[in-house]
Write a structure and sequence with these properties.
heterodimer; A: 262 residues; Rossmann fold; 3-stranded antiparallel sheet; 9 helices; globular; B: 342 residues; alpha/beta; 2 domains; 12 helices; 14 strands; ABC_transporter-like_ATP-bd (chain A); ABC_transp_ATP-bind (chain A); cell membrane (chain A); ABC transporter ATP-binding protein (chain A); nucleotide-binding (chain A)
Chain lengths: 262, 342
């Protein structure tokens, strides 16, 4: 099986302008390279400020990378990327225009990226809404009328509507409550199964990472310090940072079982 | 005696043309030196309980309760001044989202100095007082595990990372050496290493200072690792409450079970990529609360009796309110369980 996504040595420097006399603060991402097979799930973990979100943005094309290249299904990085890689933002609720109905938000995405006419767009939107477990009627709803879980589903619908091959998600589960989180995890697993999506996501929740990802990338200070099969990384972490992350998690889980069975 | 006791707290929110029961007959006790977790999803009224304890209640809310007592003294009958004294010295709160709870226009140093009560300053001369305050501030920062205090004291809140501001919030709460610490969702959105640090910190204060902690969160991993007892809240109703150990071992309420099952870390034999157990639907909004047991529409074993509010029952300090509890020895049902008198 060939890679659908090939990231080769991408680099990016983020500069935050300092105050009057203070120095500019810079953050350097990269060089980062990894590749991804069709239908694979990759999790990116790491501490705050390790460049995870920047990497996600770079993948989705929201940043202009300075060096390196991102190849999609062996195609050169180009305009079709916007249809192949779609992104779900960290706070999906804030990413919708409150003044537009869900239908017009989704329709906008289609209008800008495809040549479908009004009726075809309508059809496509309804189909996608049903696909993510919402109703056709949600077409006419506004953001504030939906619950957290439903908003997350709309965010997923917006990502799916262009039939992408890869979805990049920045902390898709962080803001959700436990029961809704499990629902979303189930939904993503189901969609992946049906559509063969590649899924790249950032998460702090080691439990979920362990459950759904095939491979893990551990990032620190803008570079990938460790990557490998989820099981291998978690059972035999090689770097100190990974060991700390895993240890912290397993300690908490162990305490849980001590409480339960002691 | 219980340090903090809440009995049948009902909170009404006046939303223009209708009144909503945002909390319905909530019970909660916090004993001395105990860590109690208050668990519930967003919209279940956790923060409302915290605000009811604090007395930070807007005009369109009203409270009805059998009692809310602190060390046997009723908080509801107190004057504003007395209550403020207690809140100032005995009960401290660490609010949600430290970044927004800190004053963005004041330096960290000044904010912590302000939170130290005047009684702790023993020096007579103003310049010496100021120096003493500064020393106490540094001391506090060291106690919460910030070693290089110089790095953060002169900063404004936006310049410091979230986990440090969380620690600073804890430092400010501990400045008055309280008896109770209420931590409102302190570990939200933290990665596991930082989370463990904060939990260890709270646990340390609990062990060394006998600090009672009300830990409000929906992070089950954090809760089960340190809390002694927990109260599970759903939609403004207490569904189950008791020792963490017995709740984990045998949850009696379907909601508690669903909550525990939803965390993949707790399932040892769960194959990767398999479906997680979860309840259908989402938590209803305050405008559309179901009658009776509020879990009703989402509950897997709901029957027609569930339109009535279940009476809370108690077995060995394990309180639950459900008509059809899980794991119930059938033949002993009527002998063992005694109804709690309301």
């Amino acid at each position: 099986m060939s890679a659908i996504l090939d990231v080769k040595n991408i680099e990016y420097t983020y500069i935050q302008k300092g105050k009057l006399f203070a120095k500019d603060q810079t953050f350097h991402l990269g060089p980062v390279s990894f590749s991804m097979q069709a239908g694979e799930t990759i999790a990116i973990v790491g501490n705050n400020g390790s460049g995870k979100s920047l990497l996600a943005k770079a993948l989705a094309g929201a940043l202009n990378i300075e060096k390196g290249e991102i190849l999609i299904a062996n195609k050169e990085d180009g305009r079709e990327r916007h249809n192949t890689i779609r992104m779900i933002l960290q706070h999906s609720a804030d990413a919708f225009n409150p003044a537009l109905s869900i239908g017009s938000i989704l329709s906008q995405t289609l209008r800008l990226n495809t040549d479908l006419n009004e009726n075809q767009r309508r059809e496509k939107i309804e189909e996608t809404l049903v696909n993510v477990g919402l109703l056709r009627e949600h077409f006419h709803f506004y953001r504030h009328m939906l619950s957290d879980g439903q908003q997350q589903r709309v965010a997923l619908a917006r990502a799916l509507i262009l039939d992408p091959e890869i979805i990049v998600a920045d902390e898709p589960f962080a803001a959700l409550d436990p029961s809704v989180r499990s629902q979303t995890v189930n939904l993503i697993l189901k969609l992946q199964d049906e559509l063969g999506l590649g899924f790249v996501f950032i998460s702090h929740n080691i439990g979920i990472v362990r459950h759904i990802s095939d491979r893990v990338l551990v990032m620190d200070k803008g570079v990938i310090i460790e990557q490998g099969k989820t099981h291998d990384v978690f059972t035999h972490p090689r770097t100190i940072l990974t060991q700390k992350l895993v240890q912290a998690h397993t300690n908490l889980v162990e305490k849980h079982f001590v409480q339960k069975y002691a | 005696m219980a340090l903090l006791e809440i009995k049948n707290l009902t909170l009404f929110i006046d939303a223009g043309d209708e009144t909503v029961k945002a909390l319905e007959k909530v019970n909660l006790t916090l004993n001395e030196g105990e860590i109690r977790a208050l668990v519930g999803e967003s919209g279940s009224g956790k923060t409302l309980i915290v605000r009811a304890i604090l007395g930070a209640i807007p005009d369109n809310w009203s409270i009805k309760a059998d009692r809310i007592t602190y060390q046997g003294k009723s908080l509801l009958d107190m004057s504003g001044e007395q209550r403020r004294q207690i809140m100032r010295r005995e009960i401290a709160v660490v609010f949600q989202e430290p970044a927004s709870a800190l004053d963005p226009s004041v330096k960290i140093k000044e904010q912590i100095k302000e939170s130290i009560p005047d009684e702790f300053i023993t020096k007579a001369w103003p310049w010496k007082q100021n120096k003493q305050r500064e020393e106490l501030t540094v001391n506090l920062l060291h106690r919460v595990g910030i070693k290089n205090h110089k790095r953060y004291m002169e900063c404004y809140p936006h310049e410091i990372p979230t986990d440090i501001s969380q620690k600073i919030m804890i430092a400010m709460a501990l400045a008055s050496e309280p008896k109770i610490l209420i931590a409102d969702d302190s570990t939200r959105g933290m990665e596991s290493a930082t989370k463990t640090q904060i939990l260890r910190l709270l646990l340390k204060f609990n062990e060394t200072k006998k600090l009672a902690i009300l830990f409000v969160s929906h992070d089950l991993l954090a809760i089960t690792s340190m809390a002694h007892s927990m109260t599970v809240l759903y939609c403004g109703q207490t569904v189950e409450s008791g020792k963490v150990k017995s709740l984990l071992k045998r949850p009696l309420h379907p909601y508690t079970k669903a909550l525990l099952d939803s965390a993949p870390s707790f399932q040892v034999s769960l194959p990767p990529k398999s479906k997680l157990v979860t309840l259908e639907g989402t938590i209803p909004t305050l405008q559309h609360l179901p009658t009776g047991c509020r879990l009703g529409p989402r509950c897997p074993n709901a029957r027609k009796e569930c339109v009535m509010v279940p009476v809370p029952r108690n077995i060995q300090d394990h309180l639950y309110s459900c008509h059809f509890p899980l794991h119930l020895p059938k033949n002993t049902k009527h002998k063992v369980y005694k109804e709690v008198k309301l």
